[in-house]
Amino acid sequence: MKPGTTRGRWRRTALLPLFGVLFWIASVGASTIPGLLVLGVNVHGLSLASYAGDPEQHLAPVSQQVVQDLQQGALGDHGIGPTPTSTVRPSDAWTGSSSPSPTPAPSALPLPLPSATPLPTPTPTPSLTRAAINGQVIDSVTRLPIVAATVSLSPGGVAAITDVNGNFSFGVNPGTYSVTASATGYSSAGQTVTVNGGQNQIITFKLVSLTATGSIKGTVTDSVTGAPIVGGAVKLSDGLVSLTDVNGNFSFPAVLYGTYTITVSANGYAGQTQQVIVKPGHQTTINFQLAR
Questions:
Q1: pLDDT at 13
Q2: Do 239 and 188 sit in the same domain of this protein?
Q3: Is the domain of 169 the same as that of 202?
Q4: pTM
Q5: SS3 of residue 203 by DSSP
């Protein structure tokens, strides 16, 4: 190959980048000028002839920004540089309120309340007229009042203590009651009482003293002749023994009240047995007639 041919080919190769740059500049200029002319006509109302004839005329700041956007868009269309974000124009700004006014929620309608069913009026129970049970507790022998005796009432389970006069009192409903009286040193006694409304029933308890004594006396004689039997043995069921005297008499001066069995025996005579009841404060007389 000839040296001149080689140098010519190298020169043509070196000019290729320069041609590329010139071609790029021409392309950019061709794409930019129409946008400027259109912007001048649309934004500022300038005619194409007046804008082209006065290259010294300056655009307003907003127009310059728009021109820059168009230029950058043209460059971006050719793959040069990033595509800028769009700029919001003042005329495009939304002048409304920041948030829409809330729609009022519909008010809930009140639910009808069920009507209350009236309760039946109860039939009033007639009140019971109260009654009373009053009384006194006394000694069965002396008839003196017994102080601090206990009087119990059933049904009800209540009790009263007699006062210094031996009296007691209960307020009760009409009905039938069992009343029991007891005191230290006395046997208990009970009564059944029925009272009506408004009635005041009076009862008396005569208690027998457990320490009260009576006496027993008598005579033992021959059943045929009637002669007194001397030295006869008279024995009580509680163990006491009395011997008949010269007149055939015997006695037990102090015996607790109650029922006793008396057995009499004498030499030459058949024995004999009798029962006797001893009451407090009383003297009981009993005679025996023995047969041979």
A1: 63
A2: no
A3: yes
A4: 0.40
A5: strand
